[in-house]
Write a structure and sequence with these properties.
Strand order of the largest sheet: 2-1-5-3-4
CATH architecture of the largest domain: Orthogonal Bundle
Number of domains: 2
Low-confidence stretches: none
CATH superfamily of the largest domain: Alpha-helical ferredoxin
CATH class of the largest domain: Mainly Alpha
Order of helices and strands: HHEEHEEEEEHHHHHHHH
Distance between the termini: 105 Å
Helix content: 40-55%
Largest sheet: 5 strands, mixed
Strand content: 5-15%
Mean pLDDT: 90
CATH topology of the largest domain: Fumarate Reductase Iron-sulfur Protein, Chain B, domain 2
Number of strands: 7
Number of helices: 11
Radius of gyration: 27 Å
Structural class: alpha+beta
Length: 289
Amino acid sequence: MSTQIEQETERETEQTDEQSPEQRRREAKREREAERAEEIERALSEAEKTVELKIFRYDPEVEDKSEPRFDSFTIPFHKGMTILDAIIYARDKYDSSLTFRHSCRQAVCGSDALFINGKQRLGCKTQVGELEWPVRIEPLPHQDVVKDLVVDMQHFYDQMHAVEPYFEPDELPDGELEEQRQDPENREKVKLSTRCIWCGACMSSCNIAAGDNEYLGPAAINKAYRFAMDEREGQDRKQERLRIIEQEHGVWRCQTQFSCTEVCPKDIPLTEHIQELKREAVKNNLKFW
């Protein structure tokens, strides 16, 4: 009996040796997929609840994936799970080609802004348990989709830089290590505007930006507000900044819909800042102040 087993083992070894490297790779891949499927099935059976994600998919470089579609993923739910947690699970356990941006996972980097259940939100800040199920996840609207949930942010960055977001004070402190002082009241005035994390959610929600590619957009105008209202800003620089934001595609294109304010993950009163810059532009042109 032992001789027969040894002969069968030898034959299996010989067959394995006869396989090409490509065949061995395929066999190893099938084994990994089978193990992963068993792991997922076990996790789903042990979970108290499961949630279905309907995730937008698109890959222009792969022929059979170049047509936009939605793929469904069923994942085990746990209290405290964020959308980003859920997407990472779907990528790691189901499909490693699922593509999206994320970084800090603390609502600071702004890289994981998504269109979740019909609203712009940060994936790392949005609780799965607070949403209606199944959860529908899409890339930000009004942006060119690069792949799956990743959009091209270059135009957004161009608009942010168009307002020249940096200081040019009239004078610098005399001491080499002396800081530029700012009154507490002035700091409070610009504090909320400094919270912007460049996520692009406000730009994506803005109907004006969707129809006017040259419109600076709420994020860029808020950035201009942050500097224009800072008392340390030089007067010449402030005048130049006001000229930038009161152009044809600047603050006057805003129709005060408040959509940008509603979706801002950092609770910045973007619409109010835009309106205040409109008043500053009027006062500047009238020269009464």
